[in-house]
Write a structure and sequence with these properties.
The protein contains three helices and seven strands; from the N terminus they run αββββαβαββ. The protein has about 160 residues and is α+β, with helices and mostly antiparallel strands. The strands form two sheets. A five-stranded mixed sheet has the order 1-2-7-5-6. A two-stranded antiparallel ribbon has the order 3-4. It starts with a helix and ends with a strand.
């Protein structure tokens, strides 16, 4: 799938790639090694505003799903910046999903589906991936969700 086709698919989904977020600590957004792009955890920005709060407390599942989707869009923005083109994406290998949630909240998989379903919608079969969805008590900057990725890439 070409970069233009991927961007067109995002537009069909009503999404556009934002400016990639700068790291908030001592790390880089993407490391490429051994044919894989390792994308650092991305936080959810919707209309330029960080989605904060905790699932099971002050964030509804539907809003968590949208936050996870926003994390996935930021992953794509980071990949495009690091790779030059999203057509170098061969396979989304794994997503790691972290959900700021209360001890009684158990719908982390539903929340992270926002990211998983976006990757499948954008890349088709190449968007199918392994995944984790973990509840945590707090995330950086009070974010509701964070998602990282491992992506197989085509050589230049």
């Amino acid at each position: 799938m070409s970069d233009n086709a991927i961007e067109a698919r995002l537009a069909e989904l009503g999404l556009s790639l934002p400016e990639p977020a700068a790291p908030v600590a001592a790390y880089v957004p993407v490391v490429i090694a051994g044919g894989l792009a390792h994308v650092s955890g991305q936080l959810p920005f919707i209309s330029g505003k960080l989605v904060t709060g905790r699932l099971g407390e002050d964030v509804q599942v539907e809003d968590g799903v949208l936050a996870a989707q926003a994390c996935a869009v930021m992953i794509l923005a980071q990949l495009k910046k690091a790779l030059g083109s999203l057509d170098r994406v061969e396979q989304i290998v794994k997503l790691g999903g972290f959900v700021s949630s209360t001890a009684s909240f158990t719908d982390q998989p539903k929340v992270i589906n926002g990211a998983s379903e976006l990757m499948a919608a954008v890349f088709g079969e190449a968007g199918q991936h392994a995944r984790s969805a973990v509840g945590v008590p707090v995330l950086p900057l009070g974010a509701a969700v964070e998602v990282d990725a491992i992506v197989a890439i085509r050589p230049l």
